[in-house]
Design brief:
It is a single chain. The chain has 167 residues and is of the alpha/beta class. The protein folds into 2 domains: 30 residues; 128 residues, CBS-domain. It contains 5 helices and 7 strands. The longest helix is centred in the middle third of the chain and has 11 residues. The relative contact order is 0.16.
């Protein structure tokens, strides 16, 4: 790998130039596999194959949520209030860190006690680029998509990866 700063020929895969110390990490990657100018990044979320959400009420037990997630092979349950508004999210990670790690009983613990309240949501009109940005900024692998205040589906990092792999 030739250093772009001092023209020193470094060994392939070197992260630092042996002559000038420039950071070479990633410079020898010729193709990342994703073109940021690809029009798929501007596609509104409503046009993507959103996943159908698993929905429970705030009063449901964590055991019910775990059984539903396990039965459907999903890692997230969305919590809707009486008016149909999205009030929270419970993920597998929440179950391990907020329930199991604290020794809470799965039957006695209600979702409203351990869910993430007021979750970040995406609009059905948001482009995929915005969704990926939000996933990165928020550190979340599942983001609900709403239209007119109603949950219409969700986007997972796995579904995004599948979208790029199939393109």
């Amino acid at each position: 790998m030739i250093c772009p700063l001092c023209d020193t020929d470094n060994i392939p895969g070197a992260d630092i130039c042996e002559n000038c110390g420039m950071d070479l990490a990633g410079l020898d990657v010729s193709e990342w596999g994703v073109d940021p100018d690809d029009p798929v990044f501007s596609v509104p979320l409503r046009e993507l194959p959103l996943k159908a959400p698993l929905i429970l009420a705030p009063e449901a037990s964590v055991r019910e949520a775990v059984a539903l997630m396990h039965g459907r092979g999903e890692g997230v349950v969305f919590v809707q209030g009486a008016e149909g508004a999205l009030v929270g999210v419970l993920t597998e990670r929440d179950v391990t860190s907020r329930v199991a790690a604290r020794g809470r009983d799965l039957d006695d613990t209600r979702l409203e006690q351990v869910m993430t309240r007021d979750p970040v949501t995406l609009s059905a009109d948001d482009p995929l680029a915005w969704a990926l940005h939000r996933m990165g900024v928020e550190g979340q692998r599942h983001l609900p998509v709403v239209e007119d205040g109603r949950l219409i589906g969700f986007l997972s990092i796995r579904s995004v990866l599948r979208l790029f792999l199939e393109a």
